[in-house]
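hiii so um. not sure if this is the right channel but i have a protein structure encoded as tokens and i wanna go backwards to a sequence. like what aa goes where. can anyone help
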């Protein structure tokens, strides 16, 4: 699982379902999954519980997505 979206999809949750369970908007979850926003430590903790995955994995996936997005924007 290389992206936050893939992690979510592996649990069988739709985006709106995960957002509801995480107590965030679907739009915000979309921004997180697309590397437009960085989740707080508290949200990473909730994601790790919901997705049953180590919080460090979520942190690393989110940081990699943001770095990739930044490189893509700078090279455009």
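sure thing!! here u go:
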């Amino acid at each position: 699982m290389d992206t936050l979206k893939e992690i979510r999809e592996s649990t069988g949750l739709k985006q709106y379902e995960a957002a509801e369970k995480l107590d965030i908007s679907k739009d915000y979850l979309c921004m997180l999954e697309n590397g437009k926003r960085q989740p707080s430590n508290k949200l990473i903790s909730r994601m790790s519980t919901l997705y049953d995955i180590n919080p460090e994995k979520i942190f690393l996936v989110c940081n990699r997505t943001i770095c990739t997005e930044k490189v893509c924007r700078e090279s455009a």
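oh and The helical segments are 4-10, 15-22, 26-33, 41-51, 55-75.
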